[in-house]
Known about the structure:
Layout: H1 3-46, H2 82-117, H3 121-135, H4 138-149, H5 153-179, H6 183-190, H7 196-214
Amino acid sequence: MSQKGIGEAKILENHSITNLRLTSRLYRWVGASGGIILLALVLVALFPSLIAPYDPTESVSRPFQSPDKDHLLGTNDIGQDLFSELVWSTRISLATGVIVGLTAVGIGSIVGLSAGYYDNLGSTALMRLVDRTLALPFLPLVILLSAYLGASSSNVIIILILVSWAALARLIRSRVLETVNQPYVESAVASGGSDNRPVFSREFKDPWLAGAHDQ
């Protein structure tokens, strides 16, 4: 290779290293910012009475009052302080998000692993169920289920779980299909291990690791 080519290769290498460093710093900054915001929300959820100036269930002023120094976001149709309602609702919102997230991950993981590893009628039926769930429009489905089941925290959690697990199941299934024929999986089966061994050890980890690297 000529000196010119070597010089260009070094420039490209230095440029790539610089981009990687900038990207790494950006990810760290975004992660730190997200952590700070999440910590703030957790503190608000744990100590709402220290932040909210009023009881969110009491009428403290005239209805539909405009924002002022006493009511930062104004009041609703029955005179309740909107800022206090917002602060107190943080606890419910965080709890709902955690419950829905963990449950959807659990259901999606089980369905995705089963449909990807086992090639039978059951896995086909599971994926047809996933397809039907993903084909439904998200917002109209949530509104319809909310109207049918009624407005409550438990019903909201159930509705969000019903519409959230399918996308994750499809993602995990695609990752499992990529790794199911890898040598380590065949070796695990050939050595006399049960199906649970490759599924719940290596294959369970690889889809998540691969998905994390793709982000």
